[in-house]
Recover the amino acids of this structure.
């Protein structure tokens, strides 16, 4: 009966391939969905760890009960905190992070990338996740640094004049340098426009003064430096370790992956259900079509158990 089952499979090779393909596609979609979300989460976490690898402490704003009750309230670290942190013993370097939507407009008025972000250029090279590949850091209120991704999309180079749209309005800047993020062309998905520290405060902080956070590089005993910072800073901010800051940032960056995973899994399970339905119907139709063939096997001495085993073997062959 096993030889009969093998000959039956060879005689109906097209049916075998089509049914096997349904199984492969269903399982493949499920596996690819799981692998995609895991790879995306791993990539985002790795980028965050690389971005803040030299951060020893971070200063974050804390919400009061009145502030936390407002759904649209955006927490920011006051600008005065940066100067206080820099003056604290044990702090080697400090930088206030600012990030907001910023767009480079081409000569024809089109946007180079709709997802590009504006950031404050960090003077300390160890805290700055971006490195200069060409040119120099932005100085004053007339210069910006573009990353390689955005410079390519905007067809800009060092010395070019670009029009940049920010929350404060539209203004022309001179490209002073081209940056990159590690081995990648861009830190942000749509590219990064870096302004000098003071210019970033003026053009990116329109309506929301302050920093999203202040990152620090320190020396000496960590507990002593943290205690000194807590004593010098106002109660409206909190000092967290670099490890905690990176962990929270990675969790926040990959939060949307948690929403995407069930969606992809849902499609995968749906495809598995469809594949199973197709396979079941295919076998039902095949068995009906082969009724006379199976009846002949019974007529020449085949037992019901042998017929069932041959059909089960065919199904197992397709599944494997």
């Amino acid at each position: 009966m096993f030889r009969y089952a093998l000959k039956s499979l060879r005689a109906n090779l097209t049916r075998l391939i089509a049914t096997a393909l349904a199984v492969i596609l269903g399982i493949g979609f499920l596996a690819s969905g799981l692998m995609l979300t895991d790879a995306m989460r791993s990539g985002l976490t790795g980028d965050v760890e690389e971005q803040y690898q030299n951060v020893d402490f971070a200063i974050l704003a804390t919400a009061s009960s009145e502030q936390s009750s407002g759904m649209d309230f955006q927490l920011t670290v006051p600008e005065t905190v940066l100067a206080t942190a820099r003056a604290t013993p044990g702090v080697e370097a400090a930088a206030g992070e600012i990030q907001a939507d910023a767009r480079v407009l081409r000569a024809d008025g089109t946007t180079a990338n709709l997802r590009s972000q504006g950031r404050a250029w960090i003077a300390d090279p160890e805290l700055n996740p971006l490195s200069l590949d060409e040119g120099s850091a932005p100085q004053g209120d007339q210069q910006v640094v573009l990353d390689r991704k955005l410079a390519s999309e905007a067809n800009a180079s060092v010395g070019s004049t670009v029009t940049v749209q920010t929350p404060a309005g539209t203004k022309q800047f001179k490209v002073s340098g081209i940056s990159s993020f590690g081995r990648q062309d861009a830190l942000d998905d749509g590219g990064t426009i870096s302004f000098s520290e003071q210019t970033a405060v003026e053009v990116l902080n329109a309506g929301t003064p302050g920093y999203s956070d202040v990152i620090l590089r320190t020396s000496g005993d960590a507990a002593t430096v943290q205690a000194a910072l807590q004593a010098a800073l106002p109660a409206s901010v909190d000092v967290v370790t670099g490890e905690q800051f990176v962990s929270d940032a990675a969790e926040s960056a990959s939060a949307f992956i948690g929403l995407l995973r069930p969606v992809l899994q849902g499609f995968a399970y749906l495809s598995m259900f469809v594949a199973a339905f197709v396979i079941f119907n295919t076998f039902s139709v095949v068995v009906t079509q082969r009724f006379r063939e199976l009846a002949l096997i019974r007529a020449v001495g085949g037992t019901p158990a042998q017929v069932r085993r041959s059909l089960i073997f065919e199904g197992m062959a397709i599944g494997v």
Residues 65-73 have pLDDT under 50 and may be disordered.
